[in-house]
């Protein structure tokens, strides 16, 4: 009687979730099994919590479809979703717990390109003749936790221009414009001439931008320069240098601002004795030491 009753009883939402969870029981990789079952539990719980309607489900599928369609070698809309929902920063925070004194990490973002040119100490990374940004001398040292210099570290940098765009966003741009790699000297020092970064919006003409608009959020990021620092025996550091005077520090669209990463960009006149070669206008400088944690 009870067996018959069980066979004829309506299948409940809980039954469906249990069936899906059980379907992964035979996965050979225990980590994959853990991830997939946790994903199912949280996803099904979300659907039940908001009582997702068929129409809303179809809308969600449409959003994912449009995300795939707009993604190409120059545009990664899925990373924008991850960034704008704070997932990228959460993953970074879980992975990159560092000891006191080490420079904090933040998100890489969608505009990084591998293989930037290796440049000389103090070189200018602005390769477009018409770059209108304010020249910015970025300099500092790469150090260990005891304050000792790390020679031979690679400082991989990239940034946007005065037009708010990264070179990778502009098909007509010089491929290596506003990016480069620098090797620290014996005293751990590095330096390069860039342009003062400007706030810029993440791409908002796609599904992520639509979400931001509908939820009353803006797409803007505060002004910053990206850096990845690599050195043998130390943890690779992906970080930003934020302009402390920039707008949107308290409302970064991708939640990447950390107070310890803000720096003052100091203004200089063209007659300053430390004016970099070739600079004939007002310029700025920013000192930014980078402290690496040892590889564990």
Q: Can you walk through the features of this model?
A:
- There is one protein chain.
- This protein has 296 residues and is of the alpha/beta class.
- The chain folds into two domains: 2-52; 77-291, Sandwich (Protocatechuate 3,4-Dioxygenase, subunit A), CATH 2.60.130.
- 27% of the residues lie in helices and 19% in strands.
- The chain contains seven helices and twelve strands.
- The chain has helices spanning 2-8, 13-23, 30-50, 54-70, 77-84, 87-95, 207-214, and strands at 135-143, 154-158, 179-183, 189-195, 200-201, 220-221, 224-230, 237-243, 262-263, 266-268, 283-287, 290-291.
- The strands form three sheets. Strands 1, 4, 10, 11 and 12 form a five-stranded mixed β-sheet that branches. A five-stranded mixed β-sheet has the order 3-2-7-8-9, with no helix packed on it.
- Helix 2 packs antiparallel against helix 3 (30-50).
- The radius of gyration is 24 Å and the shape is elongated.
- It starts with a helix and ends in a 5-residue tail after the last strand.
- The mean pLDDT is 94.
Short description:
By secondary structure, this protein is of the alpha/beta class.
Annotation keywords:
single chain; Protocatechuate 3,4-Dioxygenase, subunit A; five-stranded mixed beta sheet; 7 helices; 2 domains; 27% helix; alpha/beta
The H-and-E topology, N to C, reads as HHHHHHEEEEEHEEEEEEE
Q: Tell me about the biggest sheet? A: 5 strands, mixed
Low-confidence stretches: none
Per CATH, the architecture of the largest domain is Sandwich
What CATH first level of the largest domain would be assigned? Mainly Beta
- SS summary, helix count: 7
Number of domains: 2
Q: In the CATH hierarchy, what is the superfamily of the largest domain?
A: Aromatic compound dioxygenase
Strand fraction: 15-25%
